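thread: overnight batch results

M.L. [08:02]
morning all. the overnight job finished for the chain we discussed friday. pasting input first so we're all looking at the same thing
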Amino acid sequence: MKIILYSPQLSSRLSYIIDFFGNQISDQAIIITNDPVEFRQADAIKINYSSSRITEQGFWIQPHSLLFENNIQLQQIQCFEWNNYKAFFKTGGDIPFDIFAASFYLISRYEEYLPHEEDEYGRYAHKNSLAFKEHFLNMPLINLWIEQFKKLLKEKFSLFTIHHSAFFFLPTYDIDIAYAYLHKPVLNNIGGFYKELFTGKWKQLSERVNVFSGRKKDPFDTCQWLHDLHKRYNLHPCYFFLLAEKRKGYDKNIPPLVKAMHQLILQHDEKYDTGIHPSWQSGDDESVLKKEISLLQTITAKTVTRSRQHYIRMTFPETYRLLIDNGIKEDYSMGYGSINGFRASAASPFYWYDLEKEQQTSLLIHSFCFMEANSFFEQYFTAEEAGEELQQYHDIVKSVNGDLITIFHNHFVTEQKEWLPWRNMYADFLKRNFAP
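M.L. [08:03]
and the structure it wrote out:
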C-alpha cells in the first residue's frame, strides 16, 4: 500500500530525509503533498507532518523548524529518553519528537558546519558531537528510531507491511604501508638498518635481514592470509590504496610507480572491489588527488569511483565536493579517525546532502563504525577488548539489518609477536559470525 505524507510547507531538506526514510521503511517511495484535500482523500497510509491533526486516519508528527530553514545556525538541543533511546527536537503528536528533523540533523552532519574544535590532526573532534556528549555514538540511532517508527506505523495501519532490509557485512582494508621492508627507497632501508643496529633492536634487524635474504616473507604481506579468510567465509571486501607520489608526513606507502605496487593493486583488483585512499597531501592540493585517481585508473584500466580519506581527513563540505568533482561516486570515510562509533548515527548508506547548497548530491556515503587503529592507538584497547567491541557493533547493526563496515590494515594482522593477537582476534570474529 502506498504511503503519503502531508506537509503544508515543502523543502529540499524534507524531500531528502523522506526519501531516506522511504528506502528504510517501504519498498516504494513516500509521496509528499502540500494539498490537504489530496491527503485526506488518498487511499494510503497517511503521515501528517504538520502542526495540527487534520485527520484521525493519519499518523501525526508535529514538525520542528529545522527542515524548513534555509540557513545553518546553532540549534538548541535537549535530549530525553524515548523507548530506551535518546531523542531530541521534542514536539507532539503520535510520536514525542520530530524524527525526521532529528535524523536530518545527524545524517547531514549539521553540527560539523558550525564553529567547532579540531583535533590534533585538524579534523572535527569527535568530542564536539552530540552523539559523544549524549552517549549514543556506539549506536546507529537513526536505524533504531526507524525500527520503532515502523512498529508504530504497523499499530496504526494494519495494512502497512514492514520492510526489512538484509544485514550486510563489508570488510574493508586500507593499504597505507604495503610492505615493511621490501620495495622501499634504498636510503630508507639503509637508514633503518643502521638505526636498528646502533639502538640494539636485534629482533627488527634480524627480521629485516631475513626478508632481504629471502628467508622470510615481508611481515606486512598478509594478502594471501586475508584472501583465504574471504574465500572461507564467502566475503567480498573492498581495498583502498594510498598512492602518494611523495613519501611525506603521514603518507608512507611505497612509491606508486614501483612495479611491485602495480602488481599488488592488480592482484586485488582482479578479485575484489578497489578504491583510492586519498593521501594526506591531497587535502592541501586538489591537483594531487586528481593525479592519484588518474594513476589508479591507469593501473587498473578501470574508472575509479570509490574512495576513503587517509587518516579520515575531511572537512564539510569541501572534501566531498572535491571527490564529486573528481568522479567519485561512493565514499567510505564516514566515521572518526579518533574513536569508533557511528559518526552519522546511521548504519545504512545515504546520499550526501550539501547543506550550504541545500541539495542532495550524487555521492553515496557508506559509514564505518570500527577501525582497529582506533581501538589500539586512540582507545588503548587490547586485542581482546577490541574483539568484544567489534562484536557489539556486529550485534547491534545486525539487529537493525544495517550495513556493518569495518576497517583493518594489512600491517595490523601480521604474524609479528606484537600484532599476532590482533590477527587472531580478526580471524576469530569472522569464524564466530560468518562460518557456514
